[in-house]
Design brief:
By secondary structure, the chain is α/β, with parallel strands linked by helices. 38% of the residues lie in helices and 21% in strands. It binds ligand PMT.
């Protein structure tokens, strides 16, 4: 496995990297001066290109539900949120309407004189008002900064930039790493430039292991921050063991362990001292409650304690 410095040496920063790094630094500096706690929420899947002028790529299942719901809950708890998300994945607030054709939210009325007026369809008003009130409050306080990425390397560059910006504010910063990060990639200098031709027969590819960025993140980029990583597995029998191994290896504060199929119903919050299972009852799910509300309420308490003890 290449180490993380070799990884960055062998890949290019994303478009508008300097501009986004400056936006992140200014956001962190402004909110830390106001005494606000900050969190970086990463969200969505990372794309791994197979060609440098990319036609084909490898991707994963993540749509950004965990990240976008969590970001809303951190905002509700008074945090300033950097939302580092996969382009076109779910985002806070707009996610509530992601499955609705926006034209269906509106109704058209025509007056006797023939002029047209557009209004919100009454059946959607209550839902829109609730979301809009929370969204406008966030806009007024300027507590949400959205930054998007597409590929694995875009994500890793921006993750490092945000973590380094956090290094100036000590324990008041939290990193909440919910993005689904690819463990495999093809180094930039090994990518074919042009579209791979099917005339050459079946495709065989060799991918390198992506260095685990949790290691430099905890040791070098943001050593004083409160870091929460996720452990995703499909095999229940190895989940908690792997979560504990991650804590031991990287020495960060929390691993949230989840299984692909049940991730919206149950997670286990694993620390060096304990394992706390969070579970949604059927009635909570039916009432539209989301597990992230419980996850964030729990983490906010742990972060508070961490800040007091640091
Ligand atoms: O978006 P949704 O559809 O709602 O799905 C949410 C989710 C299942 C993606 C989310 O809950 C989740 O589990 N995210 C982490 C997925 C993942 O990358 O798991 P992992 O076991 O491969 O990696 C564990 C941790 O190591 C992650 O926090 C990741 O940030 C980190 N990592 C991974 C690879 C790498 N090269 N470097 C890393 O630091």
């Amino acid at each position: 496995m290449a180490d993380w410095t070799t990884y960055f040496e062998g890949s290019n920063p994303p478009e508008k990297y300097d501009e986004n790094r400056t936006r992140i630094q200014e956001f962190v500096s402004r909110h830390s001066k106001d005494g606000r706690r900050l969190v970086l929420v990463t969200s969505g899947g990372t794309r791994v290109p197979l060609e440098s002028r990319t036609v084909r790529f490898i991707d994963n299942f993540s749509v950004g539900t965990r990240g976008s719901v969590s970001a809303e809950n951190f905002l509700a708890q008074g945090y300033a949120v950097i939302f580092l998300h996969r382009l076109n994945s779910l985002e806070p607030f707009t996610r509530h309407f992601s499955r609705v054709n926006f034209l269906d939210l509106l109704s058209l009325t025509t007056t006797a004189e023939g002029s047209a007026d557009v209004q919100v369809d009454p059946q959607h008003t209550a839902r829109l008002v609730g979301v809009l009130q929370r969204y406008q409050q966030v806009k007024e306080t300027g507590t949400l900064l959205s930054v998007s990425f597409l590929s694995l390397s875009d994500y890793l560059y921006l993750l490092r930039a945000a973590a380094e910006a956090f290094s100036h504010i000590g324990p008041a910063a939290m990193l909440y790493l919910a993005a689904a990060v690819s463990d495999f990639y093809i180094p930039h200098n090994e990518l074919p430039e042009h579209k791979i031709q099917s005339a050459n027969g079946p495709l065989q590819i060799t991918m390198q292991m992506t260095p685990k960025m949790l290691s430099p993140l905890v040791k070098e980029w943001a050593p004083q921050a409160f870091t929460v990583s996720f452990k995703l597995e499909t095999d229940t029998s190895i989940l908690i063991k792997k979560a504990k191994q991650a804590l031991q290896k990287y020495s960060h504060q929390v691993v949230i362990a989840n299984i692909l199929e049940t991730r919206k119903k149950t997670v286990t919050i694993v620390t060096r001292q304990e394992e706390q299972v969070l579970l949604m009852s059927d009635s909570e799910l039916e009432a539209g409650m989301e597990i992230e509300e419980k996850i964030i309420a729990d983490l906010v308490k742990r972060h508070e304690k961490f800040c007091q003890e640091s």
